[in-house]
Backbone:
């Protein structure tokens, strides 16, 4: 009995060594655990920069508006937005200049004709007092059809506004970072650049491993 157990563990140890050796050789060619984003300091601002970069049709990714269109298609599951992306403007840290009491900056603002989309990225920070309520007041003064995408790792509801409090014409959409990872997958499916596809894959894996699962 003891000899059988010893033989079993010897066999398992031999197999594990073979697997370890095979993985070591494959790593030289595939490097499956390598992700260059892990080597960078990714904070909330950098994450917003990356999302805004992909949404911008003028970005150096060279894919024009297809990433933005995929983003809007995901939003269409919860709302109704025109897909006319001509003349779109994507801004970072957009000032809420119509609010005189609380001057704030919207993380990402997409101006799409008569539609405004504000993305508030709460990766590791909490909400400030009345933050989203102030955003909704600002947006409602600019147009009759605007959206606030509240983005967090888990997709929890904001504390500073709810759907009943939002002014007429302002729609609140709550997203988790899993939605972003899924969007990146959809972007990759329509991307024509191998280099950009590689980046999209790395970005998605970073989100899944360090934000969604982390």
Residues:
């Amino acid at each position: 009995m003891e000899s059988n157990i010893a033989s079993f563990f010897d066999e398992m140890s031999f197999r594990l060594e073979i697997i370890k050796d095979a993985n070591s050789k494959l790593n030289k060619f595939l490097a499956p655990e390598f992700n260059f984003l892990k080597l960078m300091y990714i904070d909330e601002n950098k994450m917003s920069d990356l999302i805004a970069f992909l949404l911008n049709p003028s970005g150096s990714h060279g894919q024009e508006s297809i990433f933005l269109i995929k983003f809007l298609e995901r939003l269409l599951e919860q709302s109704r937005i025109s897909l006319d992306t001509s003349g779109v403007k994507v801004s970072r840290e957009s000032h809420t200049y119509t609010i005189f009491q609380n001057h704030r900056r919207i993380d990402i603002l997409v101006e799409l004709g008569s539609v405004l989309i504000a993305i508030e990225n709460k990766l590791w920070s909490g909400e400030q007092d009345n933050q989203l309520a102030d955003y909704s007041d600002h947006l409602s003064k600019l147009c009759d059809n605007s959206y606030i995408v509240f983005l967090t790792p888990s997709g929890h509801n904001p504390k500073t506004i709810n759907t009943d409090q939002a002014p007429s014409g302002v729609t609140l959409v709550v997203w988790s970072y899993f939605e972003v990872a899924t969007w990146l997958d959809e972007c990759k499916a329509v991307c024509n650049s191998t280099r950009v596809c590689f980046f999209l894959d790395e970005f998605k894996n970073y989100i899944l491993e360090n934000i969604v699962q982390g």
Q: What stands out?
A: DSSP finds six helices and five strands in the chain.
